Amino acid sequence: MTQQSVATSDKLDAAVLKVAGVVVLGAIMSILDVTVVSVALPKFQSEFDASYARVAWTMTAYTLALATVIPLSGWAADRFGTKRLYMVALTLFTIGSGLCATADTIGELIGYRVLQGLGGGMLMPLGMTIMTRAAGPHRIGRLMAVLGIPMLLGPIGGPILGGWLIDTASWHWIFLINLPIGVIALIYAQFALPKDAPEPSESLDFVGMIMLSPGLALFLYGVSSLPEVGSFAEAKVWAPMLVGGALVVAFVLYSFKPRHPLLDLRLFRNRSLTIASVTMFVFIIAFMGAGLLFPSYFLQVRGESTLAAGLLMAPQGIGAMITMPIAGTLADRVPIGRTVPFALGLIVIGFFGFTQVDPQTSYWLLGASLFVMGLGMGGTMMPIMTSALRTLQAQEVARGSTLVNILQQIGGSVGAAVMSVILTNELNGSRPIPGLVDEAGKPVTEAGLAIASQQRPALLQQMPVDPSLIERGLDFAAKSFATTFWVAFALVVLTFIPAALLPRRRQPAQLDDPQGEQVKTPVVIH
Fold first, then answer.
1. CB-based contacts of 435, cutoff 8 Å, min separation 6
2. Among candidates 287, 54, 314, 51, which has minimal Cα distance to 164?
3. Which molecular-function annotations from GO does this UniProt entry contain (predicted)?
4. Is the dihedral of CA 446, 449, 451, 453 positive or negative?
């Protein structure tokens, strides 16, 4: 076999698969960690005696940390070498996981999740860089099929694994399980990854970096403080929102000045990229924000075990597993403007089922709703991002990929914060029970007691109450979830507006290699 035929072979040889194994291990850790924690939020509420808006920061802080390091990955990989940086990212993620398991307060857990996110945010972009260099651009499609395994299995396995660990051991194990995987991945990476060859890199936009993430964090902190204080007039709400908003606006204005900005907002001159980004951003806020609440409904209103809640979430992942490969194939053949609106329609149909929830809603209906939503999800994200990047010039693709990945993480952070605030605010409207206060001296509400009794049935034996009060509290809690789902449903419907502007004709690809062959560019979706 000649050298030329080897170079152009589409098959993944043993050397490439050895490198892919390291990347898949890192992907499994970072992707599973997002979905595993989603079923643990109610457990964090009872464990740390915190509101839902507060514990949702274990997700918000993690995704903000991801957004912080994604633009640093390319610069740091050139500066220090991909192997060295990948092992640093694995180490940070593993240490962060171990520290999360030691947290005694919700504040500590949020802080350790930031450290975990700083490592996790580099794993996927660096992994894609390592795999692309190992296999060459002509085999990226096959590489994405390999990486697609953890991407597809994460939404199914994460909630089930998290539920099983919490029920059979404790919540600490959803983090401790990363320790042996991290150690194995580090040893594997040391022997499997090729030696580094660091090169001079573009300058890093430190000014932009210190404006964007702190600005977003401050703004979202102010928003999530609203249910606790009950008014925008309180300094704890408006002060961080004002400072954070000012930093984000300053970042946007500043980003057009540097030669190599943290986020190249000039790319929004490309109409296809702009429309795709707006569509994705609105969709992510609604879908990811409400998605965190699905297992919480099963746990807090229906009184299911954490494992049962994870199993009840499985239809969504199964639906995505079915349509994601189909959507990837269609993306090269059918204009995205003809497929994505159909996929969004499936999500809207499925989402509507959750706007009707009450304490006795059929699990068959909810399971079918999740499955249909999963079908739509699998046909939405990858095609939108692939279509956006195909219209960019070759030298713009790295910056475009960074831009859409960060928008995705910011959308997830905003969604988690906003939806948890709406739910907490709704639950706070429940009627207080006369003469009953919690350990902090705050009045216990009907919904609060009903939710607590669903998670700890023995509580009702210690505190005999009228069964009608529990029934009324559960009904109020279910309506609070339904109201929150209505807000998310409305946002998903709004996504049809930018989606209607997506291209309905075949787009000429701008991304070509020197020989004129089209190069498929991977889009990393956490």
1. none
2. 314
3. transmembrane transporter activity
4. negative
Q: Compute, in degrees rounded to 10, the torsion defined by CA atoms 477, 481, 484, 485.
A: -160
301 within 8 A of 481, measured Cβ to Cβ: yes
pTM: 0.83
* Residue with the two structure tokens 């404006």: 211
C-alpha to C-alpha distance for 49 and 448, rounded to whole angstroms: 12
Residue numbers of the domain that contains 219? 205-261
Q: State the helix-helix crossing angle for 271-291 and 336-354, rounded to 10 degrees.
A: 20
Question: Is 73 found in the same domain as 54?
Answer: yes
Separation of alpha carbons 212 and 223, rounded Å: 17
**Torsion angle of alpha carbons 50, 52, 57, 59, nearest 10°?**
130
Query: Do 343 and 485 lie in a common domain?
Result: yes
Closest CA to 191 of 287, 95, 83, 85: 83
CA 110/CA 60 separation, integer angstroms: 9
Q: How far apart are CA 405 and CA 397, in angstroms?
A: 12
Residues 274 and 248 in one domain: no
Residue 19 belongs to domain with CATH number:
1.20.1250.20
The percent of the chain in helix, strand and coil, each rounded to the nearest 5, is 75, 0, 25
Q: Say if residue 160 is in the same domain as residue 225.
A: no
Within this chain, do residues 368 and 424 fall inside the same structural domain, yes or no?
Answer: yes
Whether 125 contacts 69, CB under 8 Å? no
pLDDT of the chain, 526 residues: tens digit per residue: 444 444 445 566 677 777 878 888 887 887 777 778 888 888 898 888 888 888 888 888 888 888 788 777 777 777 788 888 889 999 999 999 999 999 999 999 999 999 998 888 888 778 777 777 776 655 655 666 566 666 667 677 888 888 899 989 889 999 998 899 899 989 988 888 877 666 666 677 788 888 888 888 888 888 888 777 777 778 888 899 999 999 999 999 998 888 878 788 888 888 888 888 888 888 888 888 888 889 989 988 998 988 999 899 999 888 988 888 787 677 667 777 888 889 999 999 999 999 999 999 999 999 999 999 999 988 887 777 776 677 777 667 767 777 887 888 888 888 888 888 899 889 888 888 877 766 656 777 888 878 887 777 666 666 666 777 888 888 999 999 999 999 999 999 999 998 888 877 765 555 444 444 444 444 444 4
